Predict the 3D structure of the following.
Amino acid sequence: MSVKGEWITVPALHIDGATIIVSRNWLRIATVLDEEWLATELENPESCMQTLKKYGSGALRADLFAFSQKLPATAPKYSYPMELDSIAAIRLISFNDWWEKLPQVTRKNVRRSQKRGVEVKVKELDDKLVQDIVDLTKDSPIRQGRRFDHYRKTFEQVKKDQSTFLGRCDFICAYSGNELIGLAKIIYRGEIASILQFLPKASQQEMRPANALIAKMVEICQARGISHITYGLYNYGNKRNSSLLEFKIRNGFEEFLVPRFHIPLTARGALCFKLKLHRGLVGVLPNGLISAAVTVRGKWHTLLSFQGRRSSMLEWPNRTRHMERSIPPAGSTHNLEP
């Protein structure tokens, strides 16, 4: 499985067609591998729960078993303890319905991308596209105020990352001439589609690739009869304000509350669920403290990035540095969020 851009091997159980993995944190939570990208829901949670209870020790010991329902099902199907996940999704009736609900500034940005020559295409994954994605990931080491896990990955690493779910995904690519300035990888999951990767080029923000990608995505999904397009969570725990949330709202994403079940497997798991400790820091700290921490994190990563670039320049020969300063920067220097 991929964790923060790195591939790792973890113990797993295969139960009735589902692959169950267990986190290695102090609270061990069993979940369905890649649940947010699967075409179907977990079919037999009782069987999974009973099997997990047999592992009282070792790598597959779990305190909680958690699984979710899938849009468009929002009414609880089980009587297990549950919470509601805040899912960000576009309810897709038609392209025109989505378009008319957008704020005026978003519609203008889509038109700007067209006027400035941005062309959006669906591409097959081949070596040319992989190399374009490699170049795209070199654009900025910081995204959304944090370190970008895929920054400067090699060709082989990017190819492995992008080779998942190839039988039921599309690579939606925004180009300015021959330059890839935005990528969206979307996974088809029956009646819904989910955005796995969304990567507009920060230095080409003035071309509005992010808005162009969303518009093309809606057009493609309407043609396929998709009912919802999901893009991660709407609210992440108690975090209520972010540039990513603003972007989602401006592009027609709404909040859908979907049941997520938490079945205690041990006394420790039952106590932690009751105290809401399974939510992690973002789920228990107040919004004000989270916002302050995010601001500090963003400044810290920006400082590290600046120092890294400065160190690299000091290693260049003097003649090279002189010539480099004489070349004006290409494109905007503003960061695109997301």
User: Anything to note?
Assistant: Confidence is low (pLDDT under 50) at residues 311-338.
